[in-house]
Amino acid sequence: MHILTLAIKSMLNRKFTIALTIFSIALSIMLLLGVERLRNDARESFANTISGTDLIVGARSGPVQLLLYSVFRIGNPTNNISWKSYEEIKDQRLVAWTVPLSLGDSHHGFRVLGTNLDYFRHYHYGGGLALEFAKGAPFADVYDAVIGADVAKELNYNLGQEVVLAHGTGEVSFVRHDDKPFRIVGILSKTGTPVDRTVHVSLEGIEAIHTGWENGAPRPGAHIDAEQARQINLQPKTITAALVGLKSRLAAFRVQRFINEYPKEPLLAALPGVALQELWDTMAIAQQVLLAISVLVVLVGISGMMTAMLTSLNERRREMAVLRSVGARPWHIFILFVGEAGAVMSIASAVGVAALYVTQLIARPIIQTQLGLFLPIHSPSTHEFMLIAAAVGAGLLVGLIPAYRAYRYSLSDGMTIRL
Amino acid sequence: MSIETDAIKIQNLSFHWRMGDAAVLDLPELHIKRGERVFIKGASGSGKSTLLSLIGGVLLPQSGTVSVLDQRLNELSSAKRDSFRAEHIGFIFQMFNLIPYLPVIDNVLLPCRFSQRRKHNIEKRGFTLKDEAVRLLEHLDLSTEMLQRSVTELSVGQQQRVAAARALIGGPELVIADEPTSALDADRRSGFLQLLLKECFEQDTTLVFVSHDSALEPQFDRGIQLADINRAIN
Description:
Chain A has helices at residues 2-13, 15-47, 63-72, 83-90, 118-122, 149-155, 203-209, 226-231, 252-260, 272-315, 317-325, 330-371, 382-413; strands spanning 55-59, 81-82, 95-107, 110-115, 124-125, 129-130, 133-136, 144-147, 162-163, 166-167, 182-188, 198-202, 213-214, 217-218, 238-239, 241-246, 267-270. By secondary structure, chain A is α+β, with helices and mostly antiparallel strands.
């Protein structure tokens, strides 16, 4: 089609303004796709974090909070639950398995989780996948540690290395358990969940490093060294939370009621699926606002294009008159403008998608560390193609306005060159 | 088919811009024979641009007929008039004739993008489009090095000659020139006119040349004063 080559040559003649227009629309499309991707992938990443667990049990707070600190390792628990309560839940007839979780320490910003061997057996993620060891084996000794894939990668740790845990969960901690170092005996395979960023030790290990402590600080003059600690009873008195698997999912509500009405201690049992949904719903409005803003930004970009085209219209009236004199029909002029809008939108979409991938490559590790979200880099989905198509469609639609004006001009001006 | 020899035949033409406005053009009769090279003298405001738009089929008269090459233009749809114009008429304007973003060669070949006939006219004679463009440009005293050059680098005189080559390419029967020399100085003016007349003669093209400068008139077969024939001004 000759008229489209004319459109492209005309655009090349105005490459600076056109490039600016393309740049702003490309940015807006990148933003739109980025927000959509974040929404979908974050949801998937959340949903994939835990599976197979029927109930999460913790001190009484809210289900979302419980989910956040026990599974996502975000925030801190309000209270602990007693070992006695845990044992009682474990012994319920309908309960198949339980996994105790004890949180509160860290290692270079990575959370430390005290648990037992049931964790490696029963914690499932991503729709039923079990944890796997890339190297080594589960902890066997009090001072053994199993680290997640990201911990190993970022701190460059290997089997046999000794690590010192720090008290508290901050990035920088001044109280370190340096008298009782742990030895790395296992490194887990990558899971794309917070497990990758966790240092796992036994409950006894957690108990051992806190012997002689009171109210979150070592009691003066009561120091017990690592070997002495082995001798004392390391049975924990409290844990942070527990994962519970049932013999039948149908029993979930009954067991949940039993725990929620447990008379000796205020406890909360949350259904992970419901809590995930609730967590997601709390973010729904923010997400929708974000989406609405990014759609608006695309519209701003498109109206910028329209403004540029309308401004160029006057100086292009001569060009239009000349084209008419050599036999161009008004609809040729129309196509010339719509073609320009189409070309701008297509190029901008391509640039926007490319920029999105570049940004994702750069931002992915940062988002993983800062937000605990695991965003995979994948090819554009059908949904994203539809969004792009919608943006291009909107651009073409808006392009009809200057095109129609040019069409009117070329009808009324004819071959008369107006300046 | 009748043995008409008129390139342009206008009868009882009346044109006004809006309903109720006075007529801008009121021509009882105008004949221009095929192969004739006619000078139409008209001051600005005498309706000459309107006349050329009517001949080009961009405008239609409210009454009367305009026939170009035996085709009554008001019998054609606007799309047909557009393609009729592309096939049979070449235009040269006062200035800014060229598309600034196309190189010389593409400007010259522009009519061949819109008219198959003019393209075939060249190919029928065994030339490529480029050959023909080069031939015309050489005839109009433009060197072939200019082919790929941007038209904005050319002088006004060179631009007008490129415009003339574009009007003539593919051998349209009629060339309409609207003040093509008014932006040129005296020397270049007669040079340009001679090249244009010579080329029209060689291609046997009818030329309608509109200008306010009666000094050019003697070089034409015939001169017409628009004011004399347009009753709307009198």
